[in-house]
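Anyone opening a protein record will find just a pair of labelled lines. With that in mind, the following record should read easily:
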Amino acid sequence: MNLRKGTEEDLPRLLELIRELAIYENGEHNVSNTVERMKIEGFGPSAVFGFFVVELDGEIVGAAVYYWRYSTWKGKRLYLEDLIVTEALRGKGAGKILFDEMIRFGKEEGASGMMWQVLDWNEPAINFYKKYETSFDEEWLNCHIDFG
């Protein structure tokens, strides 16, 4: 498998993977993003996210989407928005390649740590993260407001 930084040309496939993940998480109806929006927000003058991809035989089979956040308690933090591996290749090492790269990248960029979310029913993902001595918060509630 080949790991590399995601490019603008990868965005259509990235959006396909995002939709595949949304179906798995029973949330496909919530996906409203577009390739055009991702071009602006990932590659425009005020880019807010980046991503890495894993390829197998020239086809993108997984991606890790990230952005930076700031903690007043911890400083600069890497936020892993999504770790996606196409269903047919889950458990074959692509997720580990991507996750290890995110850890390496965060350290290289001077982050104090990495944060992400996992659904409480997603046992395969939870078990994967436990291999990394992950801390699971139980006292914080995730909140959000949607604009538009």
Summary: The mean pLDDT is 95. The first strand starts at residue 2 and ends at 5.
